[in-house]
Structure formats: structure tokens, C-alpha cells
Design a protein that fits this description.
Number of strands: 6
Radius of gyration: 22 Å
Largest sheet: 3 strands, antiparallel
Shape: globular
Number of helices: 13
Strand content: 5-15%
Order of helices and strands: HHHHEHHEEHHHHEHHEEH
Helix content: 55-70%
Structural class: mainly alpha
Distance between the termini: 45 Å
Length: about 300
């Protein structure tokens, strides 16, 4: 179990150090710095850590796999912390007016303070996934392959079915591999299940991002028109009022947000808990409750 202990300790320390340094890091260096911290902490604990006897090559491999797996899980969670979800932003706004409730007419002011479409377009341009040619946006080759990967990711299955099949099938394969390669030991089963669970979480988040994120939907719109699209046309089709209005309508249809006497209230306990969890993470990691707030001095 030396490898398991080493991997867990290294990933925990690396994540803590990354969170402490996060506000000083530019977006470009967030992921590279995390990888560097994971490797540094692995080396530190391999040299002075609380392991039983000399480490073997197998211990090192297990520790590396677990540390990188947990590190990538944290990186994906951090992405959801740094970048606002339109749905959770709406929930936070409604909750900020409690106990009186959010006046329906305050929705316009909320939209003005949350320019989701512009921020996502700017991010795509900065990342080189879209290029600006005069008054037209042009799709790059790498971006088209990314969209095609998202379209093929479910292999014709519904979303829920594809997630269930991938979880059950992958877990079964992990158990079989542990039984064959690990000679049925409890430690081998534990490592296989933990590592598989981490990577299933990673792949699940990537697939969800490819299917439902605003950035990918914007790329799909450009791809559908042959890879070139007028900026004015895209901005007219995708604007913050329609985007956030659609999210609000879905929440109201599901009963998660209700209207009473011209004011909105969050009725879903589950949604309140999720929003509260991410507000806490935002305060800890970036010191503010929204990507559209000014950075703390």
C-alpha cells in the first residue's frame, strides 16, 4: 500500500499548495503549475514520506497514476469554480435577494452584469479555436475535430444510458484487470476502483463539456455554416438575455425556481446546496463569487 499512501499524500499537498497560489497565477500557468506541484510532491514524499520500507517500481507507478488522476479531477472541478455556470449564477442572484425574493424586473440588470457570450467568444479567440477575419469568425481545424468528438461520444445512446453503460462497463473491466494482474489482492482491487472512479469522473466532465457547454455550442454554430460566420449574426442568435432567459425558464418549468407576487425564489433544496458548495469554493480559490466580479485587491 506504499504506492496508494504516496499518491494520496502527494495529491493532497499539491492541491493545497495550488489553491494557496491560485490567485497569483495567470490562466496560462494554472495547469502546468499543478502538474509541476504534483511531481514535486511525489518526489518529496518518495524521499521523506511515511512509507514502509523501500519503494518499488510498482509503488512508484501506482503513486504516479493516483496523484495524476486526483490532480486532474481537481483541475476539472477548479474549472467549474473559476468559470461561472449560467444556471448557478441565476440561483445565486435569486438567493442574494432573500428573504424578500428577487423582483422579476431585476432580471435585466442581472443579464447586463453577466456577459457570458462575449466572455466565451473572447476565450475561444484567445485560445486560437476561432480566428477573426474582418467581421467574420473562422473555425480552426483543431476545433472542428473537438466538436466531432463530442458528437460521437455517446455512440448513439441517450445521455443517461451512455453514462450508466460507461460506469458499469468500466468498473467491471477494472475489477477483472485487478483480479488478473493483481492476483486478487484487496490492495489491487482498491487501487483499480479508485483510479477508475477518478478517470470516469474526468471523462464524464469532458463529455458533458463537449455536449452542453456554451463554448462548444458556439463552435457548432460556426461549423454548421461551413466554418465561417458573421460576428453580428452569431451575436444576434446567441445573446445573454436569450441564454439566461432560457435557463430561467427551464428552472421555473422544473419547479426549482418559483414566482410569488412578482418575485422569484429558489425552491429546490438540492440546487441551493450545489450553489452554496460552489460559492464556498469560489471564495476559497479565487476570493470572489463570480468571474464577472472585480478581483480582490
Amino acid at each position: 500500500m506504499n504506492g496508494v499512501l504516496l499518491g494520496v499524500l502527494a495529491s493532497v499537498l499539491a492541491v493545497l499548495l495550488h489553491v494557496l497560489s491560485l490567485r497569483r497565477l495567470s490562466a496560462r500557468w494554472r495547469l502546468p503549475s499543478l502538474v509541476a506541484l504534483l511531481l514535486l510532491c511525489l518526489g518529496l514524499f518518495a524521499r521523506v514520506g511515511p512509507h514502509d520500507g523501500a519503494l518499488t517500481l510498482e509503488d512508484g507507478f501506482v503513486a504516479f497514476v493516483l496523484a495524476m488522476s486526483f490532480g486532474l479531477c481537481y483541475a476539472l472541478l477548479l474549472n467549474g469554480v473559476i468559470h461561472d455556470s449560467p444556471t448557478l449564477a441565476l440561483v445565486n442572484e435569486v438567493q442574494s435577494h432573500e428573504p424578500a425574493g428577487m423582483p422579476v424586473e431585476a432580471f435585466g440588470a442581472f443579464v447586463a452584469r453577466h456577459p457570458f457570450v462575449k466572455s466565451r467568444l473572447d476565450a475561444l479567440i484567445d485560445a486560437g479555436q476561432l480566428a477573426v477575419d474582418g467581421d467574420t469568425l473562422v473555425l480552426t481545424g483543431g476545433s472542428s475535430r473537438l466538436v466531432q468528438l463530442g458528437d460521437a461520444s455517446r455512440a448513439g445512446l441517450s445521455r443517461v444510458a451512455s453514462y450508466g453503460v460507461s460506469l458499469a462497463g468500466g468498473a467491471l473491466m477494472a475489477i477483472i484487470a485487478a483480479a488478473i494482474l493483481g492476483q486478487g489482492s484487496a490492495a489491487a482491487f482498491a487501487v483499480a476502483i479508485v483510479a477508475y472512479g477518478a478517470w470516469w469522473f474526468i471523462v464524464l466532465n469532458l463529455v458533458q463539456a463537449l455536449e452542453s457547454s456554451l463554448r462548444v455550442r458556439l463552435l457548432r454554430e460556426v461549423m454548421a455554416l461551413g466554418g465561417r460566420i458573421p460576428i453580428a449574426w452569431l451575436e444576434a442568435r446567441y445573446n445573454d438575455r436569450s441564454l439566461l432567459g432560457l435557463r430561467l425558464g427551464r428552472l421555473r418549468d422544473a419547479g426549482a425556481i418559483v414566482e410569488r407576487d412578482g418575485r422569484l425564489f429558489v425552491a429546490s433544496r438540492g440546487l441551493r446546496a450545489v450553489a452554496g458548495f460552489f460559492r464556498l469554493l469560489k471564495k476559497i480559490c479565487i476570493g470572489r463569487l463570480s468571474e464577472f466580479e472585480s478581483s480582490p485587491a
